[in-house]
């Protein structure tokens, strides 16, 4: 997992440490005005690599109401474009999670695990401009409410094909 902010003074240095397709996705998040983009799912191409752009308007929710998820074919680049704050949970996929819903063989490329609150789960805070990059071995739980009230968020997800980074 990678975590950062597109407005951080070290952003350009971070970009030098990732594969080109992932670098292009992160640059795209910084350069585009995605806070004002229409919501929906879009096919995009960055430097010849086809990717999926999702612009999602949602509200954060209590952690216990959200399911952990993973993806196998895509690297999930999540970005908070507006609203918030938001928190995200994460832990390493050890293969022992109980599957709740398996959609890996579909275009969605997603598997949901049942919540297991005995697993050690890290937490990151997301404010506008913050991104989190989840690799296929990173279980993640996005859109967790920070504090006592839900917050409206504009979440951007860029699906970067894993094979474009190998």
Which class do the helix and strand fractions yield? mainly beta
Distance N terminus to C terminus?
Answer: 16 Å
Low-pLDDT segments, ≥5 res:
none
Task: List the helices and strands in order.
Answer: EHHEEEEEEEEEEE
Strand order of the largest sheet: 1-10-5-12-3-2
Structure summary, number of beta strands: 12
Kindly state the percentage of residues in helix.
Answer: 10-25%
Number of helices: 2
Main pleated sheet: 6 strands, antiparallel
- Average pLDDT confidence is 97
Describe it:
This protein is mainly beta. It is built from 2 helices and 12 strands, in the order βααβββββββββββ. It has helices at residues 11-15, 20-31, and strands spanning 2-5, 40-46, 49-59, 69-70, 74-83, 86-92, 99-103, 110-113, 122-126, 130-134, 138-145, 152-161. Strands 1-10-5-12-3-2 form a 6-stranded antiparallel β-sheet. A 3-stranded antiparallel β-sheet has the order 4-8-7, with no helix packed on it. It is globular. The model has no long low-confidence stretch (mean pLDDT 97).
List keywords for this structure.
single chain, 166 residues, mainly beta, 6-stranded antiparallel β-sheet, 3-stranded antiparallel β-sheet, 2 helices, 47% strand, globular
């Amino acid at each position: 997992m990678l975590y950062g902010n597109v407005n951080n003074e070290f952003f350009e240095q971070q970009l030098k440490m990732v594969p080109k397709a992932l670098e292009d996705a992160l640059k795209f998040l910084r350069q585009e005005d995605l806070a004002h983009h229409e919501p929906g799912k879009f096919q995009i191409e960055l430097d010849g690599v086809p990717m999926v752009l999702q612009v999602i308007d949602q509200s954060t929710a209590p952690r216990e109401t959200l399911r952990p998820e993973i993806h196998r074919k895509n690297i999930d680049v999540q970005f908070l474009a507006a609203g918030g704050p938001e928190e995200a949970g994460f832990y390493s996929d050890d293969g022992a999670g109980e599957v709740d819903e398996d959609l890996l063989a579909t275009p969605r490329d997603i598997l949901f695990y049942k919540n297991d609150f005995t697993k050690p789960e890290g937490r990151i805070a997301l404010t506008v401009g913050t991104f989190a990059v989840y690799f296929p071995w990173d279980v993640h739980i996005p859109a967790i409410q920070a504090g006592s009230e839900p917050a409206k968020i504009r979440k951007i997800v860029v699906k970067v094909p894993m094979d474009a980074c190998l």
